[in-house]
Amino acid sequence: MRTVIFRAIAPYLTSLMVLFSIFVLLRGHNEPGGGFIGGLIAASALAIYGIACGVEPVRRAIYFHPMGISAFGLFVGTLAGVLSVFAGVPFMTGLWVYPTLFGVEIALSSVLVFDIGVYLVVVGAIGSIALALEERDRD
Amino acid sequence: MEPLFALLVGALFTVAIYLFMSKHIIRVLMGAAILSNGVNLLIFTAGRITREVPPIIGADSDVLQASAANPLPQALVLTAIVIAFSFFAFLLVLGYRAFQKLDTDNSDEMRVAEPVNESAPPLGY
Amino acid sequence: MSASAPGATFIVLMLPFLAALITPWLTRRLGHNAAWLLALAPAAIFIHFLGFSAEVADGGIVTGGFQWVPSYNVSFSWLIDGLSLTFALLISGIGALIILYSGGYLKGHKQLGRFFSFMLLFMGAMLGVVISDSFLMLFVYWELTSITSFLLIGFDHTREASRRAAIQALVVTGGGGLALLAGLLVIWNITGVSQVSLLLNYGDEVRASPFYLLALFLVLGGAFSKSAQFPLHFWLPNAMEAPTPVSAYLHSATMVKAGVYLLMRLNPVLGETVWWETILPVFGGATLIVGTLLAIRQTDLKLMLAYTTVSSLGLLVMLTGFGSEYAISAAVLYLVAHSLFKGGLFMVAGLIDHEAGTRDVTRLGGLRKAMPVTFIAALAGAISMAGLPPFLGFLAKEEIYYALWATDPWSLAFVAVAVVGNGLMFVIGFAVALKPFLGPEVKTPKHAHEGPVLLWLGPLTLGVAALVAALISPLTHRFISSPMASAISGEAETVTISVIPHMGPALILSLVTIAFGIVAYRMLDRLRAGMASLLQTIGWGPDRGFDQFVSGIVRLSGAVTRIVQPGRLDFYMTATFVMIAIALFAPMAWYGEWPSMPVWPADVQFHELAVFAIAFLGLGAVIYARDRLTAIVSLGVQGFAVALLFMLFGAPDLSFTQFMVETLAVVILALVMTRLKLSASDHRATRDKLIDMSVSLVCGTGFALYLLAVTQQPFNPYISDFFAAYSKIVAHGTNVVNVILVDFRGTDTLGEIAVVMVTGLAVLSLIRVSVGYAGIKIGDNDPDRREETR
């Protein structure tokens, strides 16, 4: 599968897919998309990169261990739930703030933070599985 | 549309169960993948089928329009797909490691936990 | 009825458990001297209960407690009347002495803390049994005594004999406890009350009920197993594997009397019927005779005492069953006397064992000079056991004969049983108390000398108590015997007997007993040889039967396991799916709720049909594909078809997810598959094929029918409407699916992503861990074998 063309395209394809996955993640609350789909797209991107160029470059590229990313995602997700405790409302209640940045109102919410947590968990876990299976190629 | 879906669900279950009863781990794995499709489609269909209108609220409205699809089964199925995939991967690796260790994918020959000629349990106290 | 100081009583009931908690720490600090401190707990309990004696002597009943499960009318409540008070005093009083004795007996043992803990736990449980007012509490404490008894018998768990005895005791008494629970539930069902204090008013109702016999047999099952009645007596002698303090406390003075306690407690409710007055005396009498005969055969001091304990329990059951006024007071006196002398004699036996190094009566002799205090304690116990004045045992025996004496054949038979039983107990009592001390000095494994104060304090105190109780008999009767007898019979009674003998049949029977005992004592060796050869000829006994029962169960379960768990995955799968098929079709057939015949949807469009067709084709190809790679690709085809269906029917989120997942699944599967060197063909035999096909077809049809039936019902949009209405207004999101996932049901999703992460971890560890298969044999749990290989 490691044809020259595939190896040449793979980095661009991967970065495009990761960008797209973040786009899908962020628009998820109002349009089709969300953490699960975004995470799967990003994980597929990692898998494609791994098939094309080997697992080691992927591991270097994402810097953190994929399971670390996954665990961090779970932590972020839980934190998003715990945030509501400080507002005196039950666990996991959505909280919204609307800061204005450069004259544009941006909707930020604990729900979005939670969705990012979901995204990270899926990227980490599925990516880790895919990379681990690809790695066995060498032995 | 529901009868057609019911037919497909029945077919998915039939094939999945047929594969499950195979002696070969790889077939069982395929059965697991198909079974998750069957279950997902079952839940999706039980929430009734609507054509083409996704459950997204329009910009000019505060509530979901009546013709839109039922969002509840979709939410259930979405997580189910991801979890089913993780378990599928787990099963795959389990089967893979079992093959490496025992050099077979035939479940009849995997007798580590339940040996063929298991000795009777000890009778002492 | 009054409810004084419920808090204090509650604390007292919990005191042994609290003491058990700190015991290991205390023992580590103080060693065996911790006994002095720990004995304070039972002493405090003793004093607390002594405080009730004046009120109870005047016919008062103290109840108290707390609501536990109000909706089921289950309470944590206690009942203190003459019966439970006497028991509580015996348990705590003897308990304090036993704790001290244990400190001396197990001095320097490295598990001493554990031992004290178990003892105190048992004490708490036993107190609970006799104090409980509510059925449920009674049962819980009852089983707790079985469990602590198990722990104590198996204390020396490195020996197989200990383990066997412990398991045997647990199986017999624990099983009896279950029977008791069933019996109590039956009574609860008949009367509607779950409290002993209330139940006493419902005696006629219970006796008239058609379920009376059921309740009686179940309760008797519990009582007889706990009190070691023939033929369930075999566990008690085996329980002598426990350290001697345990034998003295649990298996003579307290726990084995729990069954007698239960019979006495329920006498006003279940008693006074033909069944009660036949079963109890017959089984009790048989136990009395069998126990003494077996005791004659033994040479081990502890075993001799153990078998006489069996016979004493038989005597108590027999007397309880007679139900007459004198029989009840005889039972009361004998119960108290027995606890005092038998506990003391056991401690003496342990003391001899501890100091001389053996407790085989044929290897002991002439110890009276070396151990004078022990000798006195032993004599006191033996005199009381033999029923000689001026000890409490004499009062009890006089009362027994007084109660039994009548001239009809039924009574005469039991008089004979009692005379023989008492005569043989006389023999055993003096064999234990005299043989080791009199005669020429015999060389013993250890050079014998008097034990420390911790060891002789207990037996001596009990001996003195038996003497004093008899000498001040009016006071004993006022505070102990009469209230207890009243509680047992359910009406006011007075016990009057005293140490001054009265002329009459009772005294003559006593003299006959003593004469018989002296003759038998002189012939003891010959009797022993005779019994030994008799038992040899019989060969089989309930003890052997227990072994056969246990090994039978193990073999049966092994055989059943081999049938239902042949170790073939496809067999398990087939069995599972057959069950599923039954579960799918049975309700539809039972309730006749088959779905109506579906009509071909009119509005189905060509491209939709095409997608369905692709899905069916993919499925077919998965099965029919010759090589596996084709099967994997076909797997992807049906997955994509399902994803397309999601897309066509308003679920873009699902569709994307399905596409991604299906791609990843096929890629991963192909990646792994290409690396495995699998055999070329994996098709199954025709017979398997037919079975598998029919099972899967039935299951698949079942699911399809089920789905059809569901969709033909009217749809309840209640929950969906909620999400549709509030998604934007409350949760500020227009993609309803996503809002449900991350907001409305966020906690759910949190759990799901945790699952995904854990699976990731599991996969990673499966791949990383190099499996070392070192030939571990599962099911190899024979402890002896492991010791050898260690």
TrEMBL record, chain A:
Keyword Metal-binding: no
Domain Na+/H+ antiporter MnhB subunit-related protein: start-end pairs: 5-126
InterPro entries: CPA3_antiporter_subunitB, MnhB
Subcellular location: Cell membrane
Bilayer-crossing regions: 12-29, 35-55, 67-91, 111-133
Record keyword Magnesium present: no
Main location: membrane
Membrane-related topology note: Multi-pass membrane protein
Alphabetized UniProt keyword annotations: Cell membrane, Membrane, Transmembrane, Transmembrane helix
One Pfam family of this chain: MnhB
Family named by the database record: Belongs to the CPA3 antiporters (TC 2.A.63) subunit B family.
PANTHER family: NA(+)/H(+) ANTIPORTER SUBUNIT B, NA(+)_H(+) ANTIPORTER SUBUNIT B
Name of the featured protein: Na(+)/H(+) antiporter subunit B
Taxonomic source organism: Hoeflea alexandrii
Automatic annotation (TrEMBL), chain B:
Cell location: Cell membrane
Regions crossing the membrane: 6-21, 28-46, 75-96
Keyword Cell membrane: yes
Keywords assigned: Cell membrane, Membrane, Transmembrane, Transmembrane helix
Membrane topology field: Multi-pass membrane protein
Family according to the record: Belongs to the CPA3 antiporters (TC 2.A.63) subunit C family.
PANTHER family in the record: ANTIPORTER SUBUNIT MNHC2-RELATED (PTHR34583)
Annotated protein name in UniProt: Na+/H+ antiporter subunit C
